[in-house]
Amino acid sequence: MKKFEIVETTADVGLKVFGENRKDFIENLIAGFYYLVFDENINFDEGLKSNQIVEKDFDDFEDFVYDLLNDLIFYLYVKKSLFKVKILEENRAVFEVYRNSYFIEIEIKAATKHRFCVKEYKGLLEGLIVFDI
Q1: Which one-letter DSSP state was computed for residue 103?
Q2: Distance of alpha carbon 39 from the chain centroid
Q3: CATH for 4-132, among 2.40.100.10, 3.55.10.10, 3.30.70.980, 3.40.1190.10?
Q4: Which of its termini does the chain have fewer beta carbons within 10 Å around, N or C?
Q5: Domain-by-domain residue ranges, the chain?
Q6: What is the value of pTM for the model shown?
Q7: What percent of the chain has pLDDT over 70?
Q8: Spatial contact of 19 and 81, defined as CB atoms under 8 Å apart
Q9: How far is CA 77 from CA 16, 71, 85, 104, in A?
């Protein structure tokens, strides 16, 4: 199964994300977001050190995904940090936060609600996110 694909849109950029379960979906979402920003895959095993833990509780998974994307943007551009999933439970997520050492190729301003969706189909998750650049 493919993890994500880039979706071309007029003046913005989209990301279609796939996952076999929620944790897989979130890991692929984060990988796809960083691929857009850095134009390369991030390898957390290459000398990056975790310096913080962030916990998020949620009731609605789709709202959580949208909020997480804007948290990723904030942490990347303001705190110069990256997220990696540590734990994802039914209504709680824990992320390790790493200091960013990668060159940013594209600036993403925000995740938008335009065409935003997360759906479950035949036991698999699929989502579409459009980013304002």
Answers
A1: P
A2: 14
A3: 3.55.10.10
A4: N
A5: 4-132
A6: 0.93
A7: 100
A8: no
A9: 22, 10, 19, 9
Structure tokens at 4: 């994500």
Q: 10 Å Cβ neighbour count for 37?
A: 24
Give how far the C-alpha of residue 130 lies from the chain's centroid of Cα atoms, to the nearest Å: 12
Judged against a pLDDT cut of 80, whether residue 69 lies above it is answered with yes
Do β-strands 92-99 and 110-121 pair in parallel, antiparallel, or remain unpaired? Answer: unpaired
Other CB atoms closer than 10 Å to residue 2's CB: what's the count? Answer: 8
Averaged pLDDT for residues 89-117: 93
CA distance 104 to 34: 9
pLDDT reading at 125 higher than 90 = yes
User: Is the pLDDT confidence value at 126 over 80?
Assistant: yes
- What are the angstrom distances between the C-alpha of 33 and each of 30, 41, 131? 5, 10, 10
Cβ count near 60 (within 10 Å)? 11
Mean pLDDT of 59-78: 96
